[in-house]
Amino acid sequence: MSLDLPAVIADITASMASMEDRGQVATYIPELATVDPAQFGIAIVTADGRVLTGGDADTGFSIQSVSKVFALTLALGKVGDQLWDRVGREPSGNAFNSITQLEHEQGIPRNPFINAGAIVVADVNLGGHEPRVAIGEMLRFVRYLAGDDSITINEAVAVSETATGFRNMALANYMRAFNNVRHPAELVLGSYFHQCAIEMSCRQLALAGRYLMLDGRHPGGGRVISPRRARRINALMLTCGHYDASGDFAFRVGIPGKSGVGGGILAIVPGRAAIAVWSPGLNASGNSCLGTLALEELARRTGWSVFSPPDEGD
Question: CB count, 10 Å around CB of 186?
Answer without folding.
Answer: 12
